[in-house]
Amino acid sequence: MAIKQVYSLQETKLVAGDFKKQLGSFSPSVVLFFASVSHDHSLLNTELQKAFPGAKIFGCSTAGEIVTGKMLSNAVVCMCFDKETIADAHIEVLENIASEDRVPETFKKFETYFKTPIKDMDVSQYVGIILIDGMSGAEERVMDRIGNLTDISFIGGSAGDDLQFKKTFVSSGGKAYSGAAVLALLKPVNGFDFLKTQSFSSTGKKLKATDVDETARTVHAFDGKPAMQAYAQVLGVSLADAGQKFMTNPVGLKVGEEFYVRSPQQPQGQSLRFYCNIKKGMELDVLVSRDIVQDTRIALDAKKKELGLIRGIIDFHCILRTLELRQKNQCDAYGKLFEGIPAIGFSTYGEEFIGHINQTSTMLIFK
Amino acid sequence: MKLFDLANKFIIFYNPYDTKKINQGDSMAGQIKRLIDTIITQRAKGNTTIMYTTKAKLTLKGVNPDLFSDTSADDPETINRLKGIAAELGVTIA
Question: Where is the FIST C-domain domain (chain A) (predicted)?
Fold first, then answer.
């Protein structure tokens, strides 16, 4: 029984062979990979499919990769599961996500495969992974639709392209797609858990969105004032300096004691564009950043203590967190948090857990 | 505090043993909380994890359950929004 992680810094056509060599006699039934866009994703898919012909393979492009003990660039990281760790899995691709709602038909396919209506599937037995085009702007809608139709948790991330913001890829069945999402429904043998961690506290100050363009992820006004002016005022900085606060002072929707972070992206005149949507009437806490490495260590230690044994972790890690870690020279320290645990992850253009969120790590933990 | 909240508190405060008047007050407030509770209860069916995720889904859809109590005014816009959310989540509202 095993979950194995491998990584490769080889050129694309050699990656699959490199993985096979590292895995030796281990024969995976499910393979998940995250790869930099410096690789040709069509070629990578073809080669992986050739190397692991019996496996169900899926993955996506990244803005940086994570593997046990390391944060990497221009790499391919891969997690391999055997039948004794994932009893069954089915993977579907949703194309044209920006204009079409294909979630219901995808769920029908899951129902056909697992021979169970999605509403009757035991939420403690099944878990979903979503990998979605990070340039599609469709994450909120797709996650909302998923959440309407099932209580099974789907966790994942928005594919990246090494901060080029041009084209991202999701992959399944030996093919790479853009403008698409991959949904995988897994049945882990020993159960699973989640960890959602974001290193922010509330400043105690609030902003209420009073005029928004939800589709454009833009807030025109907070509390009846132009959004940029209100944001600058609440932080006590000039309008000219407000942009410098975006990374350290995002806003958060509070659910219980948890924040669902929405990160400012850029001013649009007097309006403020975010990396995920904000609805009219939402009351948001103005947040202030804390130490990512320390907070993630505390969260992981608590989870280890709670679960005893962790067999594997998939970390969907916001690119904004990665940028902060790079800025503070903390990438090594972050990578080391996962030492001793089979782990892979990637720097995302947004994280998915219940909805679409920012500046967060959403982790799927295999017990 | 909205007018309906004040009115409701007034009735309850001055008529603590008058069931009829308390009920009249209830009919003017608290409907949002009851709708939220119905959605969470029907969807979760006693599962505490689903209770949390449903609460999070409601918040992300624009209605934060923590902001409403039994005395919150029956704001028609929020009630309509919740009825729409209930339909999306497959919950039947009586």
Answer: 227-355
